[in-house]
Design goal:
70% of the residues lie in helices and 0% in strands. It contains 14 helices and no strands.
């Protein structure tokens, strides 16, 4: 029995008090984990493309191939030999634990997910941090429930709290975390669960704001509907977005099946995907130049840290630029197809990361291209 469990046995708090205290603990722990995760990604990115890049100046843009492969060679063994559950998106693994194992997740998954995902995203893997931090938060909630020997229902409750806390911390959006946890993971609204999820999301958001600030994820310009007919245009955009989503899902499934059939050890497959991603990044500026996309910023220049391809990482910084209308049509149109390809190569090969950020990026590029096309 753990020290915390013995302490609770000695104090014998009422169940209601305990169920109010645990979500706060899970939320705060997830908030700290999210801060660590985000800062680790930034540190790895700056190390790979800033500190170490001058040492390989002769490679030029070839460094965009080397760094993701190195990240995959380090992250692949973490997944293959330490916690196989850390592979992939994160959310499906949490849902599987809720449905099949009463919410029980091995504690080591949190460590493996943070390391593998930070290595993947920080070195340029096309993936998001939302799925991983959801899995990390869920793992922390599950671990706490298991240490205290709670029932399956209580453990599931804490898993939902951790998931909500993860979204709240990484997006600085407690309400989004609450809705995600209740709708996606639990698929129902329970009054008892709702209160705990809210507490965890708020606790996580407070920790995140203390260390990361209260800035919104994106700076969305003010928009006013000028004519009722614009609603039809948005309806069409929604249909196009659905088609883009279907393309994304099928491409990811196809590449997952292809990589699963490769006669390679699980620890090495992510490196193959990272190499393919690097080759796409190598040809990326030439594609843009061929399309006559702002040649003055063809992503060919140095330093590498300021010229990382748009398809690398989560792409949130570039989404902000698109929201401000600072990207041309052909670039946006190309990224609608290149970002899903980059993500499918990254995650389909077994690297660790989320799909929400790449999906958001693809939708933003589609919306921007659509707006340019209509001259809005």
């Amino acid at each position: 029995m753990t020290v915390l469990a013995r302490l609770l046995d000695r104090l014998a708090p009422r169940e209601g008090v305990l169920l109010l205290f645990l979500p706060v603990l899970v939320g705060a722990a997830t908030g700290y984990a999210a801060v660590l995760f985000i800062r680790l990604i930034a540190a790895i990115h700056n190390l790979g493309y800033g500190v170490l890049a001058p040492l390989a100046a002769d490679l030029g843009r070839g460094w965009f191939i080397v760094v993701p492969v190195l990240g995959a060679l380090l992250g692949g063994p973490v997944i293959a030999w330490f916690a196989a559950e850390a592979k992939g998106h994160g959310v499906p693994e949490v849902m599987q634990a809720l449905i099949q194992r009463g919410g029980r997740i091995r504690p080591r998954v949190a460590v493996a997910k943070i390391l593998a995902s930070a290595l993947c995203i920080g070195t340029g893997g096309s993936a998001g941090r939302e799925g991983p931090i959801v899995q990390v938060g869920s793992t922390l909630g599950s671990a706490m429930g298991q240490w205290l020997k709670l029932s399956d229902e209580r453990i599931k409750n804490l898993v939902a709290c951790g998931a909500a806390a993860g979204i709240a911390a990484t997006f600085n959006a407690p309400l989004a975390g609450i809705i995600f946890s209740l709708e996606v993971l639990l698929c129902e609204l329970q009054v008892a669960v709702f209160g705990n999820v809210v507490i965890a999301a708020v606790a996580s958001s407070i920790v995140s704001r203390i260390f990361l600030g209260a800035r919104p994820a994106f700076h969305v310009p003010t928009y006013t509907l000028h004519a009722p007919g614009e609603i039809v245009l948005y309806t069409l955009l929604g249909l196009f977005a659905a088609l883009a989503g279907i393309f994304f899902i099928r491409l990811l499934d196809t590449l997952e099946n292809i990589f699963d059939r490769l006669p390679l050890h699980l620890a090495l497959r992510p490196a193959v995907g990272a190499f393919c991603l690097g080759m796409v990044a190598w040809f990326y500026p030439h594609i843009l130049s061929f399309m006559s996309v702002f040649p003055e910023d063809s992503r060919l220049g140095m330093p590498l840290l300021a010229n990382v391809p748009h398809i690398y990482g989560s792409g949130f910084d570039f989404i902000d630029q698109v929201l401000q209308g600072r990207a041309p049509f052909l670039l946006l149109f190309a990224l609608v197809f290149l970002k899903p390809l980059a993500t499918a190569l990254t995650l389909g090969s077994g690297n660790s990361g989320g799909v929400f950020a790449p999906s958001l990026f693809t939708g933003a590029m589609l919306g921007g291209a659509y707006g340019h096309f209509l001259k809005l």
